[in-house]
Amino acid sequence: MRLIVHNMLTCNIKGVINKFPLRIEAEKVIKKEVDFNPDFLRHMLAKIEWKALVDGARSMGYTELPDHAPALESDEPFLRKFHHALLELNLEEGSLVCQESGRKFPVEKRVPNMLLHEDEV
Amino acid sequence: MRRIDSVYGRVEILKRVLEKPTKQSHAFSASRSFSTEGAYGGGGESQQNSSRVKIFDRDLKRRDRAAWLSRNKNDTFVDAVAENLLDRLEDCKKSFPSALCLGGSLGAVQRLLRARGGIEKLIMMDTSHDMIKSCRDAQDDNSIETSYLVGDEEFLPIKESSVDLIISSLGLHWTNDLPGSMIQCKLALKPDGLFLAAILGGETLKFVLELRIACTLAHMEREGGISPRLSPLAQVRDAGNLLTRAGFSLPGVDVDEYVVKYKSALDLIEHLRAMGETNALLQRNKAKFSIFLSRIFSILNRETALATAAIYDSMFATEDGTIPATFQVIYMTGWKEHSSHPQAKRRGSATVSFTDIHKQFGGQS
Question: Shortest CA distance to B237 belongs to which of B332, B336, B344, B341?
């Protein structure tokens, strides 16, 4: 699971108010190279929840991202870091934890499993 | 003979019979060739209430669909529906940078997408882990940025206003709560986002209504009970309501009917089985070996299946001996409200009267 997806995942248990973002508990993180596409990145920059991205990257071991997204995004080194955090860091095994309810959604083989149990619906 | 119209508790389960395991659990004849223009099975009524009646056993559905996918890579029907759906992306000038594809025929959508709609980021979601794995393995290197996720359409784990497009090809008719799922889709969409779905309609296999009766008769005779076998499907008239109820703006519904001709009723059964649509209804005779053949009926017993096929063959074979089956696919489109969408004007705010127009064009009084 990459941070580009993590940035839109929420906990879907009924009654939970603080459902985004999910905290990442990383067990195994891999880095997979992805083609650098600055236009795509600039496009995504506007839509990403920055704080969630930074916290997510930190939990996966990447601390290079600045705390706030810069106003002028055409800076190449920044885009490279953004690219790495957003698309190249991949959570192979671990879990996503809901901040409010504590429910853990497992991530197995890079695929997060957001299915709820019988009693949670 | 009681016609089974709905599975909402009106079906009487006469007797629950424990099935003896049959030796030949997969004894059906191998599928012969059949011409498919696209088809799917089912018949029933729409879901009007949003209370969560648990009709489908989703776990079962999850496992069986994965099994089908591993066997049948290219089903013409499924592809035809996916193609029709994806074609609509070319009809609008808008591009959809991020798209969510909900389970159903994920493989077909992934294969046939071909850069339509300006999609840059694609998320594929299904309740079955195996299905997701097969899709991921099938992904070729040239395809767009795709991510995979295991999740339930009824409990969408997607943040509000985060995707531009949601596509679901032949998947939503399996949800227990269709209106609820659609509402969640609407919430997940960004303003001016598009919802595109294809579901099976209630007229599907209406022609084969009698097949259901035949099956019931056979089943009753052989196994001494009636299990509800029909999954409730939406009618066309309800599709519009579903869209407006979910809060979509500019709703659009259209219907396509596909006719499939089978050499014999057994072929029909075999195709439905191969499509992997199982009878996942909760109320069913539990059998050790579940031979779940189709959405319409669960033929747990080979003899019942043969009896059904025989009855159907004798009743409905056409002149050239083929069995035609009609399938109805309902395509639904809806947009998430946005200020640019035309709204109906307030009543009484008209500035021109029809009588004036009438006079201008000199019509007969």
Answer: B332
- Bridge-based pairing of strands B145-150 and B121-126 is parallel
Q: Which residues of B touch A43 (CB under 8 A)?
A: 97, 120
Does pTM surpass 0.90?
no
Binary contact (B157, A10; C-beta < 8 A): yes
* Helix (DSSP H) and strand (DSSP E) numbers for chain A: 4, 4
Which residues, 6+ apart, have CB-to-CB distance to B357 below 8 Å? none
Record: contact A111-B148, CB cut-off 8 A: yes
Residues 87-116 of A with CB under 8 A from B: 87, 105, 108-116
Give the chain B residue whose CA is nearest to the CA of A4: B147
Where do runs of H (alpha helix) occur along chain B?
58-71, 76-91, 106-112, 129-138, 178-188, 209-223, 236-246, 265-274, 302-316, 354-360
The three-state secondary structure class of B22 is: coil
Residues written for chain B? 365
**Nearest CA distance, B230 vs chain A (angstrom):** 24
Cβ contact (<8 Å) for A4 and B121? yes
Q: What gap in Å lies between CA A14 and CA A6, rounded to an integer?
A: 20
- pLDDT one-digit tens code per residue, B261-279: 777 766 766 666 555 443 3
ipTM of the complex: 0.84
